[in-house]
Design brief:
single chain; about 1000 residues; mainly beta; Ferric Hydroxamate Uptake Protein, Chain A, domain 1; 22-stranded antiparallel beta barrel; 5-stranded mixed beta sheet; about 5% helix
Length: about 1000
């Protein structure tokens, strides 16, 4: 199919060849009267061909002909149009007397636009912004930089993934956006080296995203990596990095030993039990379990080196990096950490006149050590974090023999220093999983792409490319054997306490192949003031996934490094815990887009894409995704007064995009081998039908409408962008659960409708003074209203299971937001310390019919603001991010058992029955509003102070840039939430129903880093 498509494209473009003209590469430098301007935009007039300058103001751009005109702009300066007149080297000086807030926005498939003439909702983040953040992964830079983009860390653990949502939650399934790196679809971008990223663009409305059709309903994130420049007189070497340490931001205010004894005695007095004598308090330990587990100086470091340059016909960029982060818990013992090594290459050469070859390669290895229960997508009893709020301060960490103290005392009340202390049924000593269990994931990631670009004519370009992405992840878990018979060991690690070790290994291999061909035509023959560019193309995509696993107990060695299956004493103990799994999917697409403007005043764009997916049956395989947008630059009209406004533009868009995010083969019957059974004394492996097929299954579609306004005021010092959107997702693909009478699972179904509507605002201010001082401020805010319109006949969707609550915490109903907290409304406390629940139906008794929505984990609005200043080599910046109105369900206070520890706020609290066993209370184990808390927060995400040495000082030693800086991350958090961290992520990336529930998790650390940037 790919070869056939390639032949068709080649024949097509050959028929269009009438004449040729000579393309060329232009290089240059953009400066002002104080020095180079990094991040300046350069675009070839009448096309979507553009680039940006690097740190030193240098740029390189392939233009269509020797007489092209370049449009140069930079925030805070007057734009210029420069005719090449055959020149291939330019030195451009921008004037600072009139500022501009214009920029280039990337819109995909090799096209870009000046934001002034764009009628789409697109935001772009430059390499300068990304490089200024001490982040482990580039997508973290999206948080708070543009309205409507919500980025939440699922865990503060090293290497933990992020949840990213553009304009709300559109589906109960996976709501992550589509990611593309240099045009290549990838599952995520966490493997990228931050210093390799040139820009990231987010396509938020359908007019921008619909050209990616099938998987663009949740938005699109486009990443462009750095390239070399042609016609440079030397190779540029860049080295940058940082090193520093991490510490915890906040510790819940739990009772110390004296406070706990006071609280414990209150309960015992009420029930007539035995109290702890106040004279014994001084003889008991006073253990702060957070201090025991957390390291106050876990290191974090990054180093990157790159080479770039080029000659008359060739340019290249090569880089390598090492990122290393040690965990706050177990990091010093090698049990928690993340390391990423990268090697990147981008190479371009003109093989023959007007034909260029592009080659890209990215090799990455990530190594992650994680703690039990810290696997980001499950609820585990082995999670040490959900035990911390329960552990008594009067427990020692180790017993007299140096072994982990048995905090559960399952055989009776424990005794410490001759003093009897309460019996707790359930919690385990968190030292056990940290000391005796090791989990390591090693991922080898490869991204290769090769493409060719043919400038057939000055206004006609053909691009073709193919790519390959692979993620091979090997996971190894080893549980050491130790003697803890009779003590409490977390489930999943139970074999440890009986002197038996266990080895688990799994391999998952995901391979993605892609082929693209596009033809771009700029209608240069149109009359003056008409600008039209059309792109048509086709894309083919294929994914294959395989996974397998093995498990064994009774190894002859008892350490992680030497543990392998050859060391299993009895080879018959090696089992397969679940069957090997394989699947594959394919998609082919045809698309086109037209961009038009008249006098850069009247704007119009339209696109259409047709996708055919192997996930659907023949009758529903193809989906069609159109979009339209229009804009009007009123400030270009003669009648529009321009005393205040330098730009005033209104725009509107409408479009449809799709989702095919379901398992394969839902429309047909498939079979897999079962685990087998013994029949007539013979072991026989049979076949199980995987799913009862649904031949009517089809695309999930999101219809999006957007209206917006862009304005620049007061000599372009102030910029304002406003957007209102209304997105409706229909035919939502859901695995509604259930099975046939003989146990065959039901296939996914198209049920339900979800609406997201909201308002976004971005305000930017730039000011520069004659003495060289300049400062900037940006503020953005986004409101989103989420409502489930239809569940296709289902009464509700539930999620959010925990270890101790009687029912799931989250439920989705028609007329309510996705994943609201569902339970009893607590109205007070009775004389026995039991919660009083609202009798919703007024029947005089409390039943499950009295449950209601008691909280919403989705924020009313999110916001962010940046401040920056530069003066004589000094630079300062700070970035804040906030979330307002989101609720948190604090499940940590129910990760407890009889006589567990409590927050200090429980002292003299009427709810004293919480001290008792879960089974003794009829209300405290129920999901109720008693545990719902305000999760609003404002975080100082980063603050940086830097200094760049003057060029006059460093140029004599061969340097073109030397910058040193000090950065703090997460130094301040403003919140009323009393847990470890108010930023609660999504428990399962594939399930948006499980969000906002604090079960006890790895909080984000605060960080202090010292960094440098060298270039020569």
């Amino acid at each position: 199919m790919m070869l056939h498509l390639l032949k068709r494209c080649a024949v097509f473009v050959t028929l269009l060849v009438c004449s040729t003209s000579i393309a060329q590469t232009v290089t240059g430098k953009v400066s002002d009267n104080t020095g180079p301007l990094p991040g300046a935009s350069i675009i070839e007039k009448g096309t979507t061909n553009g680039t940006q300058t690097d740190f030193n103001g240098n740029f390189s751009l392939n233009v269509s002909n020797a007489d092209a005109v370049l449009m140069v702009s930079y925030i805070g300066y007057t734009s210029q149009e420069i005719a090449l007149d055959g020149r291939n080297t330019l030195s451009i000086l921008l004037e600072a007397d009139a500022q501009s807030l214009e920029e280039i926005v990337v819109i995909g498939y090799g096209q870009s636009q000046n934001k002034r003439t764009s009628s789409q909702a697109v935001n772009t983040i430059s390499s300068d912004r990304i490089a200024a953040l001490p982040i482990a992964r580039p997508e973290s830079a999206l948080q708070g930089t543009a309205p409507g983009i919500v980025v939440v860390q699922n865990s503060g653990a090293p290497g933990s993934p992020l949840t990213i949502r553009l304009r709300g939650t559109a589906t109960p399934g996976n709501s992550q956006p589509l990611f593309l790196v240099d045009g290549v679809q990838v599952p995520n971008i966490d493997f990228l080296n931050n210093s390799d990223v040139q820009s990231m663009s987010t396509l938020k409305d359908a007019a921008a995203a619909a050209i990616y059709g099938a998987r663009a309903a949740n938005g699109v994130v486009l990443v462009q990596t750095k390239k070399g420049r042609r016609n440079t007189d030397k190779i540029t070497v860049s080295i940058d990095g940082y090193t520093g340490f991490q510490d915890r931001v906040n510790t819940p205010d739990l009772m110390n030993t004296a406070q706990y004894v006071d609280y414990y005695n209150q309960y015992q007095t009420r029930v007539g039990g035995t109290t702890i004598a106040s004279s014994d308090v001084g003889n008991l330990p006073d253990t702060d379990w957070y201090d025991v587990l957390y390291d106050s100086s876990a290191p974090k470091s990054f180093i990157n080196a790159s080479l770039s340059g080029g000659g008359e016909k060739t340019n290249f960029f090569v880089s390598g990096s090492l990122f290393d982060q040690q965990g706050l818990i177990g990091g010093d013992s090698g049990k928690s950490g993340f390391e990423r090594k990268t090697l990147n290459l981008n190479f371009n050469t003109e093989v023959v006149k007007n034909v260029s070859l592009n080659i890209g390669a990215n090799l990455v290895r990530t190594t992650r050590q994680r703690l039990p229960g810290e696997n980001d997508d499950t609820v585990s009893a082995g999670n040490p974090f959900n035990q911390l709020v329960s552990l008594l301060p009067l427990f020692p960490v180790l017993d007299d023999a140096g072994n982990p103290f048995d905090v559960s005392a399952q055989n009776g009340p424990a005794e410490v220093n001759g003093i009897a202390i309460p019996k707790i049924n359930g919690p385990f000593n968190p030292i056990i999983p940290i000391e005796y269990s090791t989990i390591e994931d090693i991922a080898d990631i490869k991204l290769f792409n090769i493409g060719a670009s043919w400038n057939i004519k000055s206004d006609l370009k053909f691009n073709i490319g193919t790519s390959y992405f692979e993620n091979l992840t090997r996971s190894k878990t080893f549980q050491e054997a130790f003697d803890f018979r009779g003590g409490s060991v977390p489930s999943g690690l139970a074999s440890l306490g009986t002197g038996t070790n266990q080895l688990d290994e799994s391999v998952a291999n995901s391979r993605w192949s892609q082929f693209d061909a596009t033809l771009t035509y700029s209608f240069a023959q149109l009359p003056d003031n008409h600008n039209l560019e059309v792109i048509v193309g086709s894309s083919y995509y294929e994914r294959k996934f395989e996974t397998s696993a093995r498990q064994a107990q009774g190894l002859l060695v008892n350490n992680f490094a030497d543990a392998n299956f050859a060391q299993v004493g009895d080879q018959t103990n090696i089992i397969t815990p679940f069957p090997d799994f394989r699947n594959e999917e394919r998609l082919i697409a045809y698309f086109g887009r037209a961009l038009y403007n008249y006098k850069e005043k009247y704007l119009f764009s339209a696109s259409l894409r047709a996708d055919a997916s192997s996930k659907f049956g023949p009758g529903n395989r193809t989906g069609y995704f159109p979009s339209f947008s229009t804009g009007w630059v009123l400030s270009e009209e003669d009648w529009f007064g321009n005393a205040i406004f330098d730009l005033f533009k209104i725009r509107a868009s409408w479009g449809v995009s799709g989702v095919d995010n379901i398992a394969d083969d839902q429309y047909r019957a498939t079979f897999s081998a079962n685990s087998g059974s013994v029949i007539n004394n013979q072991f026989i492996v049979g076949l199980n039908q995987n799913v009862l097929p649904n031949q009517d299954i089809k695309w999930e579609e999101t219809t999006q409408a957007n209206i917006g306004l862009d304005a620049n005021l007061f000599n372009n010092t102030l910029g304002i962008t406003l957007d209102y959107y209304n997105n409706t997702t229909n035919d939502i693909l859901l695995n509604v659960g259930g099975s046939t009478a003989i146990g065959i699972p039901l296939a996914a179904q198209n049920v339900g409708e979800v609406q997201n509507s909201g308002f976004e605002a971005l305000v930017s201010y730039r000011k520069r003074y004659e003495n060289g001082f300049r400062w900037n401020a940006d503020f953005n805010i986004a409101f989103n209203n989420n409502e489930v319109k239809d569940l296709g006949g289902l009464s509700s969707l539930t999620s959010g299971t925990t270890l101790v609550f009687a029912s799931p915490i989250s439920a989705t109903f028609e007329g309510e937001p996705i994943a609201g907290f569902f339970g009893f409304k607590s109205t007070g406390v009775d004389t026995n310390g039991e919660l009083i629940f609202e009798d919703l139906d007024g029947d005089g008794s409390i039943t499950t019919d009295d449950r209601q929505i008691i909280g919403n984990p989705l924020p009313d609005f999110t916001y962010g603001f940046n401040l920056g200043a530069n003066y004589k080599g000094f630079d300062f910046s700070t970035f804040f991010y906030g979330s307002q109105g989101n609720d948190i369900y604090d499940a940590t206070v129910r990760n407890d058992f009889a006589f567990s520890n409590r927050p200090v706020s429980y002292l003299n609290n009427e709810v004293i029955n919480v001290l008792g066993n879960v089974n003794e209370s009829t209300t405290l184990g129920e999901v109720s509003s008693f545990y719902v808390k305000d999760g609003s927060f404002l975080k100082m995400r980063t603050v940086t102070l830097g200094y760049s040495l003057p060029e006059s000082l460093i140029e004599n030693i061969g340097f073109s840039r030397v910058r040193l800086y000090l950065t703090g991350e997460n130094l301040l958090v403003f919140t009323d939430y009393d847990g470890a961290d108010p930023e609660i992520g999504q428990q399962n990336l594939a399930n948006t129903l499980d969000i906002g529930i604090d079960r006890g998790f790895y909080p984000a650390p605060k960080t202090i880093l010292l960094g440098f940037q060298f270039q020569f």
